């Protein structure tokens, strides 16, 4: 048993009831753990590292939808472009240009979310509201990108008010720019804060430790 089946089934039913996509974040977890979840019918998996994703994609069934959620270097886009379902972590025009270039070469469209900087911490990658608006206003030049929405990570804090404020900022901005997005996706919420994310408009949550094992989270479902 690699996964917490009870947590998974609870999350799955909550997500289905609220029309939220549950992305199982499987970074650092072995193939067997992903296979176990796959066997329960799960198809949406999130990974953070290019090499790890390539290895897992080769080893696992082809109908998995792979979500890339980590910081992505432009020179590595070509390795995941042929199969990635959605890149959640687009945090620069340079990266977007490279994804478009690789998609053009492969004659396909790649689903992308723009990562919006909402946390107060210095370490988080992302774009601010002005940068995102600038990209969206010129979105036609990225011929092979599907602009599907936004991704955000809240501050790592126990202060729920701060977390809620950050999720509400990105939700308001998302709603305001909804007309730009083909299949609008707001990817916010992780194991520790997904409830606040859903309350604030999230329709895609990225859950690692609650499904695959604890990394110091003490929240109940
Ligand atoms: C690791 C990670 C997650 C999942 O985190 P948990 O707290 O384990 O649920 C979600 N989103 C991103 C971007 C991550 O890097």
**How large is the share of residues in beta strands?**
15-25%
Instruction: Characterize the main sheet.
Output: 8 strands, parallel
Rg of Cα set? 17 Å
Calculate the terminal CA-CA distance, rounded to whole Å. Answer: 20 Å
Overall shape:
globular
Mean pLDDT, to the nearest integer, reads 95
Question: Your description of this structure?
Answer:
- The protein has helices at residues 5-17, 31-39, 50-59, 77-80, 93-106, 129-137, 160-176, 194-199, 209-212, and strands at 21-25, 44-47, 65-68, 86-90, 110-116, 145-152, 185-188, 204-207.
- The longest helix is centred in the C-terminal third of the chain and has 17 residues, at 160-176.
- Mean pLDDT is 95; it is low at 216-220.
- Helix 7 links the parallel strand 6 and strand 7.
- With 221 residues, the protein is of the alpha/beta class.
- Strands 7-6-5-4-3-2-1-8 form an eight-stranded parallel sheet.
- The structure holds pyridoxal-5'-phosphate (PLP).
Q: How would you concisely characterize the structure shown here?
A:
The protein has 221 residues and is of the alpha/beta class. The protein contains 9 helices and 8 strands.
What's the SSE blueprint?
Blueprint: H1 5-17, E1 21-25, H2 31-39, E2 44-47, H3 50-59, E3 65-68, H4 77-80, E4 86-90, H5 93-106, E5 110-116, H6 129-137, E6 145-152, H7 160-176, E7 185-188, H8 194-199, E8 204-207, H9 209-212
Parallel strand pairs: 1-2, 1-8, 2-3, 3-4, 4-5, 5-6, 6-7
Pyridoxal-5'-phosphate binds at residues 25, 27, 48, 69-70, 153, 190-192, 206-209, 215.
């Amino acid at each position: 048993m690699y996964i917490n089946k009870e947590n998974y089934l609870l999350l799955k039913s909550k997500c289905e009831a609220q029309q939220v996509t549950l992305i199982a974040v499987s970074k650092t977890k072995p193939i067997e753990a992903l296979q176990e979840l796959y066997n329960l019918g799960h198809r949406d998996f999130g990974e953070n590292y290019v090499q790890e994703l390539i290895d897992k994609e080769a080893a696992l069934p082809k109908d998995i939808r792979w979500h890339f959620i980590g910081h992505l270097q432009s020179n590595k886009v070509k390795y995941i472009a042929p199969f990635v379902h959605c890149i959640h972590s687009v945090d620069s025009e340079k990266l977007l240009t490279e994804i478009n270039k690789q998609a053009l070469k492969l004659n396909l469209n790649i689903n992308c979310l723009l990562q919006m900087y909402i946390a107060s911490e210095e370490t988080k990658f992302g774009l601010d509201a002005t940068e995102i608006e600038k990209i969206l206003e010129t979105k036609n030049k990225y011929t092979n990108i599907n602009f599907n929405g936004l991704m955000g990570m809240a501050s790592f804090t126990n202060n729920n008010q701060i977390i809620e404020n950050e999720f509400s900022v990105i939700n308001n901005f998302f709603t305001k720019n909804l007309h730009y997005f083909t299949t609008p996706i707001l990817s916010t919420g992780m194991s520790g804060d997904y409830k606040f994310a859903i309350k604030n408009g999230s329709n895609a949550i990225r859950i690692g430790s609650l499904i695959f094992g604890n990394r110091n989270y003490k929240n109940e479902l």
